[in-house]
Amino acid sequence: MVETTQLSSKQLYQHCDTHSLKFDSTAELDLLPTIIGQSRALESIDFGVNITGNGYNLFVMGAAGSGKYTLVKRYLDEHKNQSKANDWAYLNNFSESGKPSVISLEAGQGKQLHHDIEKVIKQLSKDLPHVFDDEYYRGRMRSIDEESRKHRVRLFGILQKEADRQGIILLRMQDNSYAFAAKRDGEAMTADDFEQLPVDEQEKTEHAIATLHEDLQHTLLELGEWERDNKAKVTALNEEVATEVISGQVTILKNAYPKNKQLQSYFNAMKKDLINNVSSFLPADLNAEDIISNVDDNAVLRRYQINLIVDNHDIDGAPIIYENLPSHQSLLGCVENMAMMGALITDFSLIKAGALHRANGGYLILDVEQLLMQPYAWEGLKRALQAKEVRFDAVEQMYNLAATVSLEPEPVPLDLKVILLGDRELYYQLYEHDPEFAELFKVAADFEEKMQRTTENDALYARLIASTVQSEGLLHLERDAVAKVIEEAARSIEESQEFSLHLGRMTDLLRESNYWAVKREVKQIARQDVIQTLNSREQRNDRVKHSLYDDIRRGITLIDVSSEQVGQVNALSVLSVGELSFGQPSRLTARCRFGDGDIVDIEREVELGGDLHSKGMLIMSGYLGSEYAKNKPLSMSASLVFEQNYGEVDGDSATAAELCALLSAIAELPLNQSLAITGSMNQSGEIQAIGGVNEKIEGFYDVCKLVGMTGKQGVIIPKSNIQHLMLKQDIIDAVETKQFYIHAVDNIEQALQLLSGIEIGRKDDNGDYPTGSFNAAVAARLQQWIDVNKHEKESDSDESDS
Predict the structure, then answer these.
(1) Would residue 652 count as lying in a domain?
(2) Rounded distance, CA 673 to CA 561, Å?
(3) Which one of 222, 410, 615, 703 is most buried, counting C-beta atoms within 10 A?
(4) Which residue segment(s) compose the domain that 410 sits in?
């Protein structure tokens, strides 16, 4: 007799021992300083953050919601005082405006410098117009103008005297040009009058006019030189007047930052440019009544003010930046443009920082999936890390697309740690396919996804719940509610001896349980609130499940859960619809006949079967050949199919069910349809663990309840899945009252005996099975087909001989 295992109700659910939880409410518990169960990841983060050298950036890997960001941020907050942030600013390059200079300042110094420069420029905007409007300046300007006027009068007086001597008049035309004409009675002669003069007098007059024209040209040239000298005098006067005022204000700046050589150099250049461009502080009309209001302060200030792209005056320690949309521009910054008179222009004041600038000297945290989704962002980040500097290169310029190069800011030196958050698949794909990845991200921190259920760990998890309640502002939990949350953390990962460390799922469960507790108007979350949350979740998402089960109830989908059938078994699968996963029983049938050893997987033939399902079919074929036809041909053909299946089938968890159905068809012995079966197997006939064991059991139980319980129904599972059982209470109750059964088996023989009710039978020393056993029936049927095969071959041979 082959041993079978029927599970008791105590084996179906691992309750949390509330007696080991030494509190009545989470309000009594100390909060956790860190996330539990992540010591390995924390050590990796500590190593990656503190080691120096090229490429020691971090990739923190784990499932979404596992607390990666929370742990990283908490660690960095605790260690950020090991370094200090700097301010970063761009300065106008007065000698080459297209190449602004970058400067690093102590945190807070940038804001102060910005204030100081603004104060100086505004003061100059007030002082300079007044200086150029006082009587001293105006007197000297009048002196220069008067001297220029006198010189002009003298030169034109000489010219006019010579013209008078020769009877010629000097005329000033409407376009301010000069001309000469013959004179009569103090007036210019008309052309007709001039024509009446004797020819020799006309020639004499024309010669005199030509000579006077030459004298006029010499006079105008001398006046031009005189005007240039006057302008030089005005410029020198302006510089003299402006220098005293400007020097005083610039000295204030220089005295405020005596040790910064770069700023000292900038202030000197600023002083020179201020003097050269003092006119920008003055109105176009110095005679205006309100000369100060006519000056464009903003335009002047923008030229001399720093562009403070990173201001860390309010940051204590190193900057910690999380960029939730890591595009190329948001990471590396940009140079903006502005429209002016129909054209796009730019200058150093339009340089905008990116996350790399803001995190410089500290830490930049990025979601790698979001990063890879943004065009050129990944390449831009790698380029910056490799060069150890951030350039304001437009994407168009980097990839030779159409762009106008208008500004080339000095690159910002880069010194920071980049921390990528992502799942394991992305890490391994980047490691394999991107050679630069391994050089730039040398430290991996791998998050644990589960933790052993022990008394000590249950207590830690309870403190984690208390910490989450505190941070989320939720009601505290009663002890029984904490126990249910721990149990659900185990069930969510199909474990009875371990629980999930997924913080996101736990936090959602607490929030929703809080909702139901508040609705009940109670002061603490109870176990019933957690249960209500789980039930409500399922109800919100079970439309598809209800529809499929209703098709079974109405007989549209054919499922037999009470009779005995040959070559037929109830297999179990798991369907996932959104956040809900549920079990779905399917009728699996096998048909066999005399043939040449082919087993047809109908799902595969119609391209509904996946690779893993095909693998399971091949394993089953290997078992058949090894067990029943080791030294003789397998003279049969068979076909297997999931009836009424119209979707893809993959996985090998139905291998045991397929083999049982096939052997039943060969032996022509019926199988009990009251029992469903799930499990993969190897070529030795051992039943192996599968996923979704809880959902599969619950799915078959729900269907049995729907079509009618008989008190004989149940599910056969792999024995190795016992440790994964965390079943719903109604199934536990049904097992307790012997209305439903769960059997755990090690091998295909145990499964067959449960399904057929017949002794399986093992080979004796002669290789024969016991009479009346299941295997004897299989062997007898296979032998019949061998005999048929032999007879056909003999007949074919006789016909060929004749």
Answers:
(1) yes
(2) 5
(3) 703
(4) 58-85+315-446
